[in-house]
Amino acid sequence: MVLVKPVPDPAAAAERLGPDGRLDRAASPAVVNANDEYALEAALKLVAEHGGDVTLLSMAAGSAPETMRKALAMGADRGVHVMDPALAGSDTLSTARVLAAALRDIQADLILAGADTSDGGGGVVAPGVAALLGVPYLSYASKIEPDPVAGTVRVRRISPTGYDLLEAPMPALIGCTQALGEPRYPSLKGIMAARSKEIATRTLADLGLADGSVGGSAATTRVVDSRKPPARAATRVVRGTPDEAAAEVVAFLAERRII
Amino acid sequence: MPVVTLPLGGRILSGATIGPGPGATMPGVSPATPTEPPLVAGGYRLSEEQVLLRDAVRTLATERIAPRAADIDRTGEFPWDVKELLASHDILALPFPAEYGGLGSDLLTVCLAIEEISRVCATSGLILAVQELGALPILLGGSVEQQARWFPGLASGKRLIAFALTEAEAGSDVGAARTRAVRDGDDYVIDGSKRFISHGSVADLVVVFAVTDPKARKSRRLSAFVVESSSPGFSVERIEHKMGMRGSPTAELAFAGLRVSATNRLGEEGDGFGLALRTLDRSRPGIAAQAVGIAQGALDVATRYARERTQFGSPIGDLQMVGAMLADMAAGTEAARQLLYKACTEIEAGAPDASRWAAMCKLVAGDTAMRVTTDAVQVLGGYGYIDEYPVERMMRDAKLTQLYEGTQQIQRLVIARSLVGRDH
Questions:
Q1: Which CATH superfamily is domain A2-227 in?
Q2: Integer Cα distance of B14 and B405 in angstroms
């Protein structure tokens, strides 16, 4: 199971805030959140090694299936799309409740999610889902090693000094990082196959949540104000081998008599 | 819906939308690239599937192939890594029937892929174009057994195929070929040589056109054979040192007593000449696609440069003389692209004048690529002439699109003969 979120395409640089201070999602083409692609890549590798299949889960607006197709083209087997007008204005707690409710219907050994998303950046939905489901949450994974016989999973969690080795019983939810490896490009056959893969739609009524407990009306947080960060002066990116880059930085600073 | 019939046989369906309708999204179109080709082609739109495949190839080309282009040109070595990339993402499978592991794509879809790859690296675009060129005689003239024998390996990209028609003394005059194939029991024995054979030194299979009946009229002298390059008697005499398209090996091949089974002959004896011409009707659009891609790539670089390069206190793109050049380059590239897309559609639909469509799109696209790349070098000035920027490479690569698969003069000959009604 992989949690995927459509986010504004960073390459389009068309992100815009609406009058309510929230992201205007219609203003920008959507792509799969980058960290979720790393999670999906990890899931596809696990399935290739251990068998099984990969289901995508997304709570998003009506255009989400278009974005989910890109993830299906990478090799996921099917998608579940939770969509309901009442979900507009949901906060992270609502999102976690909805995803947890959707996951109760789905049997999964592992639930993988990106460490955070490039739009909201809260990084709290995945641990929230784990807490609501009562399953272990293993964060900042750089390596995932399930043991199907023992019914456990080992995860290397990135730490400031290296990594911690965590072990938990399955099912478990894992927060995935880019250290898991570059996501694959979809093959043309994958793209063609994705067009006929199933994306099931679930409403709040389907999930037994049509009681006002989630969505904008139940939000526990609200956007008071949002502003763009002040523009910065032009930046210069130094690339090259460490030695070359260091020499270039030193020359740059010396030229300006900073060192 | 009323249908308007045009003098040339085209049709305009009234009410058809040209260009995206209001509120339509244009996948893959990013505001950062205003020279983006639109989804419109000759009064129709690319299908959703074509857009998806094109965008996928574009992403792969931009992120994985573009960074390799300068190195491929400098070393002049065949990019096996790019070939693997194209194979593993099913791009080489595009022209092959689905039952043999291909994607069964139409000609336009194949050309969209060639265009997108050539936009960043013409040598890499040629890998798909030559795979298609070599496979076409088998597709057009091969039996079901022959297709089942060779297509799976070619569609998967595990094997490469080349097309060997040209000889040192038989270029545009195809019928003057001297390479002989003499029947010997169940085999043929081939002797002779071929020149300017793209991928001739890296291909596993080569379609060789050889004379089986020297006494027959020109159009019945040749037969086509699928030859394994590992066969005894097959040798690569040399690899040409070329001005452009440098990563694509152009080989001279020699055949000395090369024995090939009669089951490797495509069609009947004497079918070779017709098969070669029908192959070129479908392969020339691939070269046109390569040319359009090269032109678009050069236009992209020149546009970006004109926006960023400041002289006299403003970007040079604001200077009218430079702006006018960019405008002509953009309009020319788009015109070549639209003719290509239209030609693909006509050829795919079985138009009787397929030869003319193929020749016209290759003629216009090749000349456009040469002009646009030359102007791109001009826009970049001194920077355009050095290898710090890719436009000098694109200019060298563009030249070949005016030469191979029939020179521009041959394209004009084909078009003229089609117009005045004189067949070969």
A1: HUPs (3.40.50.620)
A2: 38
